[in-house]
Design brief:
Length: about 290
């Protein structure tokens, strides 16, 4: 089984090789769709690189300025990449494609372009294999999987465009390039939406709270759990706050013991930080933060 770091390294190396191959092919054939594919691979390189940075920073503990650690760094990097590089790349590619769509240019060596795209399509199965062989399926690897599948779709589009050009349909090249540009733009929208939610303090799904409630109620001495509030502080990592109802005649030492048992249960659910407040009253299952 492979660790998530090794999976991302394999992904990064394969994307780097494909970027150089596609750029070389564009220089020797003039197919605009190959330039789009090279730019798409460059975007993939930056995205996978941000995942590697996030993986490394996620292992760094908290400090005085960042008491919950540095796991959100990946989301900051991904958001910057989406807003700047990816958006600019897709717009520039469309600008290059539109004049060719109106005034088609005849590329050369379509067979070379087809071979390069077939090689790229085949090489992408290496990171897909690595992801399926990973030890865990966390959000970093899910992002890499989504990115690789998107890349395969873009390559198929490019293959269709080159195939039509080889048969004399010259406008198929800029049209395929525009489709690739729209694919890059769609990736940017997904990255902005997902990373924006995380940076704004996204709460886990309702099913997560149900699992937490069941786990806490299994602790001996806990009569109820309420006022739960949680947010992601990194990929699949949660900070949480809750009240647990206990016997009002329980000693502080006993309540402290229950608190440690509850936290042990929560760690298995991806909660790395939690404030548990033993109390003798009941309340609503979930809480919405309000200003003091």
């Amino acid at each position: 089984m492979l660790s998530s770091t090794w999976v991302l390294v394999i992904n990064f190396v394969s994307r780097l090789a494909l970027f150089m191959l596609k750029l070389w092919a564009f220089a020797h054939t003039g197919f605009l769709v190959l330039l789009g594919e090279a730019l798409n691979s460059a975007v993939d390189l930056i995205v996978v690189g941000s995942l590697l940075v996030g993986e490394r920073l996620g292992q760094k503990g908290g400090d005085q300025e960042h008491p919950f650690g540095h796991r959100r760094a990946r989301h900051v990097i991904s958001l910057i990449v989406a807003v700047t590089f990816i958006t600019v790349t897709s717009l520039q590619l469309v600008r290059e494609a539109l004049p060719r769509l109106l005034h088609p240019v005849t590329p050369v060596n379509p067979r070379v372009a087809l071979i390069v795209l077939f090689v790229a399509f085949s090489v992408n199965f290496l990171p897909l294999w690595a992801i399926t062989r990973s030890k865990k399926q966390d959000i970093l690897l899910k992002t890499a999987l989504f990115d690789t599948i998107n890349d395969q779709v873009a390559i198929v589009t490019a293959l269709v465009g080159v195939w039509f050009v080889e048969r004399g349909v010259l406008w198929a090249d800029p049209l395929a390039a525009i489709v690739v540009a729209l694919t890059i733009a769609a990736n940017a929208v997904v990255l902005i939406r997902e990373n924006g939610k995380m940076l704004l303090g996204r709460s886990p799904e309702p099913a997560f709270y149900e699992r937490v409630q069941r786990a806490v109620l299994e602790v001996n001495g806990v009569k109820g759990v309420h006022d739960m509030i949680a947010e992601y502080i990194g990929p699949d990592v949660v900070h949480m706050d809750m009240d647990v109802e206990v016997d009002p005649h329980m000693t502080v030492r006993q309540a402290d013991g229950i608190e440690h048992l509850v936290k042990a249960r929560l760690r298995a659910l991806g909660v790395v930080s939690c404030e548990v407040h033993p109390c003798a009253h009941r309340g609503q299952a979930r809480k919405i933060h309000k200003e003091l």
